[in-house]
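Predict the assembly for these two chains.
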Amino acid sequence: MEKEFYIDLIYKSFSGDLSEEEQNQLENWLSESEANKKEADVLEKTWQLSANFSKDFEINLDAEFAQLQDRIDLDEKGNVQEAIVKTMPTIRKKSWWKPLSVAAAVLLLAAAVFIFNQNPATAEMLAMETLEGEMKEVALADGSKVWLNENSKLTYPDAMNGEERRVTLTGEAFFDITKNPSKPFIIDTRDAEVKVLGTSFEVRAIDDEIRTEVVVKTGRVSLGKKNDLKPIELTANQKGIYNSKTGKKLNYEVKNLNSISWQNNMLEFNDLPLEKVLEDVENHFGIKVILENQDLLKCKYGSLFPDAKEAEVLKGISSVFKMKLVESGERTYRLKGGDCQNTSE
Amino acid sequence: MPSISSLTDLELVEAIKADDQKAYRALFDRYYKYLLVTSYAYIKDDNTIRDLTQDVFFEIWKKRNSLNIRNVKAYLRRSVINKSLNYIKAQRMNFEDSDESFDVPDRAKVQEELEASQLQKVINETIESLPDRCRVIFVMRRMEELPLKEIAAKLDISPKTVENQLTKAIKILRAAVEPYVSGGLFIFLFFGIF
């Protein structure tokens, strides 16, 4: 028989099963010579290696995830709107929904910030920076105040006599802005700008982020790209997102505003899963909380601590779920036992 | 609580079921590239495989409350492959046999210096360059280890076509490794690998 015939048998053995007769034919052929064996070997090894197929991709996981996050946000926004339509009368009772609120609090997660100074040449730019664990207060020329959180940098003019008040930020800061309708206050980040329509807000801008996120506590703030003709306007309890890659903007209601708790020392939990609550508590106080009863992770918890104190918050949470609070090491607490008796859902 | 990266796949999924976004991100980081490569074996289009892979993760989050997964990696892999196959079908890629000829790549230039990984690279590149339907069938057989009949059923073609395409693939691969066979390098290489 031709060599081709046996080679075909070998191919066939890879793709399916050989009959007993074919199997015998092949074995006889293999025992005939070393060359035949080698040929079979090469095919066999090639077949083996082919299972390890792989390919190198250049991937920026942050950017890829941001894209996915956009989709989730958009999807959840749809859900939220639906929920609001259904429950409008009960949600409306919140007092800070009043449209006349004058204070605005903003959380902004944004890209690295480049410094663009659009103030008139008469003003000199100053800069204030904080190190890890450091917080600084900056008084601006117009009487506004800025609290810089750790690892942040604010660049601002020493005088504010232009048509607008413009500063740039990298990092995280809380702004308390002197109201002046004729001179808008604008914060630049690398990709976005935040325009203040109220009087106080918070901005957080983190390096290498494509998305700019703004969370408004009270008041009104607008968010968009540089010189955006149609920025989105955000009001109380709303989160806005601007993606500089896709150019997409969207906004939706948020439940958790504790990311700005460092400034006002207020912790608010609107029926959040306990797991999330404890994460906020850990971040706020810089402590470690170990939940022993993992069955409670998903239990919903709601409460407001206007001036949060460690002991008070921990006791509050543990008592609701009938857990025992034990200090177990430096800055570490254990929550033992308890059950999910609050059936808020 | 332990660091996210030390959690097992199943622990991550449990956390995701409890709305843990960090765990979700960790799962994404762990498997995104793997799923891209898996999908790429079927569809050689960067944008499409990104969309399909993101679909998989999107659904994980969307369905997080009702997830019931025993083997996370297998589940994700299965998901992206199903999506890839659905995509291929929607594109109406022609999978039936036709009178086509194929060129065996010319790899006459034998490389002097060889590393073990280079042979794998040659094989990877050859698989990548297989004609679409030949590649898809080959990948289903080789990576998914599906029986001939199942491949035929999934692609709605005859088992004979599957067999022909597999033979075609292995012939092309065999030709691609030919330069490495001469001089006993090939055998040496394999001993180096295993």
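Chain A has three domains: 3-41, 62-256, 265-336. Confidence is low (pLDDT under 50) at residues 78-121 of chain A.
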